[in-house]
Write a structure and sequence with these properties.
Length: 770
Amino acid sequence: METGSSSDSVGKLELQRERATANTKLGSTLPKIEPFVSRTHNPRELKSWAKRTGFVSTFSSETTTSNSEKFDSSTGFDLERGLHHHKNGGSSPKIEIDPILGRTRPARGSEIEPASGSASRSGNEFRNGNGRSLGLRDEKKRRRIGDESVVGVKDGERKVGLNGNGIGIGNVNVNGSGARNESVNGTVNEIPATTPPMEPKKEEENAGTDIGIEMYPGGDDPDTGGWHRHSGMRLGLRDNPGFVSLMYYALQHYLSLAGSLIFIPLIIVPAMGGTDKDTATVISTMLLLSGITTILHSYFGTRLPLVQGSSFVYLAPALVIMNAREYRNLSEHKFRHIMREIQGAIIIGSIFQSILGFTGLMSLLLRLINPVVVAPTVAAVGLAFFSYGFPQAGSCVEVSVPLILLVLIFSLYLRGLSIFGHRLFQIYAVPLSIMIIWTYAFFLTAGGAYDYKGCSPDIPSSNILLDSCRRHAYTMQHCRTDVSNAWRTSAWVRIPYPLQWGVPIFHLRTSMIMIIVSLVASVDSVGTYHSTSLLINSKPPTPGIVSRGIALEGFCSILAGLWGSSTGSTTLTENMHTINITKVANRRAVVLGAVFLILFSFVGKVGAILASIPLSLAASILCFMWGLIVALGLSTLQYGQTSSFRNIAIVGVSLFLGLSIPAYFQQYQPESSLILPSYFVPYGAASNGPVHTSSKQFDFAINALMSMSMVVTLLIAFVLDNTVPGTRQERGVYIWSNPEDLATDPSIYADYSLPTKVSRFFCWSRCLRT
């Protein structure tokens, strides 16, 4: 329909006469219908009236079928192609609503409810399956459908609803003296009823508009400022509640991410042959880099409130490198040799990632990255460690099982419990559980639960001569709280510095591995960018901004390689969960928390305390964190059609082969399985895999990549999603903003634009080049 001219009074009168004539003709053939008067404001009351008067039969399946045939032959509305003009006039086309950026919704039965409690609403208001009204709004806030002119609201009002098949249902009041129900195919039933008067402000807002259908959640088109209503958020992106409140929200944000920030060194450093002091140093280095990279990303990256840190994406390749054949029997300076090898690989892979972002190649690659690719890839990152999780935690079941249960109770069963207006159990589930079970393990240790006759926990298991003590050495190492000597050996003040472990070592084989892994990290970050932007009710970034964020992540990973944090730096997937449960998506709070991380990294005893956490506790928490990553990855499928067989097949096949193919490569175990613990055997396939060519460097890289679930899953999902036919709605293609949107909307521009001085610098540099 097209908007009628409110200024042409002659046109209005002619149109009213035509409609009055049509009503007279139809009224002679159609029965009179009693008016609907709501007495109890019960939705069933209007349904009962509709069935009694025959209103429902007007929009029965027969009418819908006949109308859909007309629409299929005469017009169409495709979200990929836009609004098509009608060939023969007619009425609104049959459409499929796309409410959330590429996600389609299955057809639902129509639900008709009376409008209640508002003087600004007149007549009957139709609601969709979610209870959200579909009615008239300002022209700027609607997608227009149809080509029929209507009279302004001052002369009459028109409301539109949707039936289960997406066909509009209208309710028109003419001149305030009567009402008539009008379906989209032109069938009209006259109802001699009057409606309450409208407020003048509402009349002015709706005057001269046509029937519109809300295409976006909350009823606001992304072209308006409605995206910046921080729906459900306690603190918005650019809000400033004051320093004290910011300090509280900052600590809350980072404490909820504690499991992702500090537990990787507890696994990787002992496996590399490092001491407790080395573990404390790596933790302090990781805190420093997480603070620096988060500040850089908040000001120069996408500028979303996302914490950067050591990602689990880089954990699998680090385990592969450290379990290479040449490092298995190395005893002297083993930790430093492996760390330098990992540093060199991370630097090369990060340089590739930076080039991918700064050259704009990532903007082209975004066209091929969709939720069906992101979901199984991120899920595979968590599933890749199933062979390590509980086998490591099971070394001390009296500690690990209560910890897992307590985390689940806090995060699931007590998530709705509010204390002083804050859901403390849901937000602080991980740190609270660790503190309680750590205290419990301390009492077990002090009470002699892990004391064995003639055995000392301070003596390494390799030096224990008694077989009885050797059998209990593993339990003492993983369960006792007094095994670590990090507190005694760490300094009070220590500042991590670049190249603290030595000059990085560069090898082709490890560089090839990290280049591919950097692609996996980029895909992970793309999904996090998009989901977070929708979560905070902002408009998605442009492809250029996404490329800028990926480029900066590559630069931050270069810093991680120089400092030696054992893994690269990337956007933590768990950010989405933290923002969702804390309802805080504030840039200032994230930056202030990053400053605290930097200050804590200078205090060596902080890293020592964290390094003293027993390995069984760390493995138990990681079981929960890896499961959470799997869930967050699969939740990305909400942007596509989850009921589509195409998507189900792609995700299922990708995940299954992503686990099964690496299992094939991992069955080629080392010649002596005693060299590696059982939970590290799968990561030794790089040196013993089935690929054998003339180049040992190439053999190592291919065997390593094919033994990692996330790489195989990404490869299969990427190929299938971009070759199997499917519509954009079915695939849930990510819809990124256009640069023109940022230029025309200052509020959106402020969310993603670089700081003023930095923008002036780039403009000045551009002017010099021209």
